[in-house]
Design a protein that fits this description.
Blueprint: H1 8-24, E1 27-28, H2 31-51, E2 57-63, H3 67-83, E3 86-92, H4 98-110, E4 116-119, H5 129-135, H6 147-154, H7 164-175, E5 184-188, H8 195-203, E6 210-214, H9 221-226, E7 230-233, E8 251-254, E9 258-262, E10 267-271, E11 284-285, H10 292-312
Parallel strand pairs: 1-11, 2-3, 2-4, 5-6, 5-7, 7-8, 8-11
Antiparallel strand pairs: 9-10
Helix pairs in contact: 2-10, 3-10, 7-8, 7-10
Bound molecules: NADP nicotinamide-adenine-dinucleotide phosphate.
NADP nicotinamide-adenine-dinucleotide phosphate binds at residues 165, 188-191, 193-195, 214-218, 221, 234-237, 255-258, 292-293, 296.
């Protein structure tokens, strides 16, 4: 205390802690790096399509002025630019009616030059997102939410347009050579965007995980997680999953993104659905940011290029 020389005991304890930390710290599942590799591959595919007279084109509709949505749309536009995909952004006032958006989608469905249509979520309350999803031509449904595309997934056909966040997570796990066959995977969250389609992908033949889906009415999530080989958290609650819930050497995928006040700096910071300390016990874990988020965008670009290539056939 107060500048006294540390005892040998405390030095030894500190060294032991540092050593333990070195050995048990999770391997980061680097979504940012992998997404850049995918973008490099896509850039080449886009150039090839351009030579054949096809210019992959993504149309993004943003209704209202939600600041977070503006950031997400800008990130998507920038990613399109990096890969040579044409992007068109249509910004509509928050007072726009559902019919106006549906009519615009109808026109885009007919437009031969547009290969992907995306309506940024969330939409203002007068617009029903399910109706929007159902209106998009399934061949241009680059979000992968249309019932026809989700139906294919239920049938075991993964060659269609797949929902971007779940597809990004599967790619990240595959890239890290994480074998899911027979593994106990717990998915926290059952949204139509993340949890539910992801659970289907994990249970597909060939992937062969044993999947437990948990949600706000589930009981004993902590114990379920403690017996899981893989935990995938898509809850939207900051640091919901605690380090103590994570079994030694299990894999943790953190889908959540929440903005909270960092008391030490007085500034906002991004956190996931899993306590960062879980890194100390997990074998692999996604960082937030830089994990699942960039993979979602990479899969959106992939779907746009796939859709454009199919039009060329
Ligand atoms: P959502 O539609 O709000 O779904 C949240 C899910 O979590 C629901 O199924 C809900 O259960 C469940 N849940 C809520 N409280 C719970 C609790 N106390 N215990 C257990 N389950 C609980 O959210 P989402 O769209 O799936 O997104 C989830 C998070 O991922 C958000 O932070 C979102 O921002 C983030 N996200 C990130 C990306 C990315 O690219 N990184 C993409 C999409 C989403 P019920 O069904 O019972 O209500």
């Amino acid at each position: 205390v107060g500048g006294s020389t540390p005892s040998w005991g405390s030095i030894v304890r500190l060294k032991a802690w540092a050593l333990a930390r070195m050995f048990v710290s999770a391997v980061l599942l680097d979504g940012k790096g992998l997404s850049r590799d995918i973008e490099d591959e896509l850039k080449i595919r886009v150039e090839e399509l351009n030579k054949g007279g096809i210019k992959p084109h993504l149309a993004v509709i943003l209704v209202g002025d939600d600041p977070a949505s503006q950031v997400y749309v800008r990130n998507k536009e920038n990613a399109c630019k990096r890969t040579g995909i044409k992007s068109t952004k249509i910004i509509l006032p928050s007072s726009t009616s559902e019919k106006e958006v549906l009519d615009l989608i109808g026109k885009m469905n007919e437009d031969e030059d547009i290969h992907g249509i995306l309506v940024q979520s969330p939409t203002p309350k007068q617009i029903n997102e399910l109706k929007i999803t159902n209106k998009i031509d399934p061949s241009k449904d680059v979000d992968g939410f249309h019932p026809q595309n989700l139906g294919k997934l239920v049938q075991g056909d993964t060659n269609g347009l797949l929902p971007c966040t779940p597809a990004g997570i599967m790619r990240l796990l595959k890239n890290a050579k994480i074998n899911l066959e027979g593994k106990k995977v717990t998915v926290i969250g059952r949204s139509r965007i993340v949890g539910m389609p992801l659970s289907l992908m994990l249970a597909q033949k060939g992937v062969d995980a044993t999947v437990t889906i948990t949600h706000s009415r589930s009981k004993n999530i902590e114990q379920i997680c403690q017996s899981s080989d893989v935990i995938i958290a898509a809850v939207g609650r900051p640091e919901f999953v605690k380090k103590e819930w994570v079994k030694n050497s299990s894999v943790v995928v953190d889908v959540g993104i929440s903005r909270i006040l960092d008391k030490s700096t007085g500034k906002n910071k991004l956190v996931g659905d899993v306590e960062e300390a879980a890194m100390e016990v997990a074998s692999h874990m996604t960082p937030v940011p830089g994990g699942v988020g960039p993979m979602t965008i990479a899969m959106l670009l992939t779907n746009t290029v796939v859709s454009a290539a199919k039009k060329g056939n």
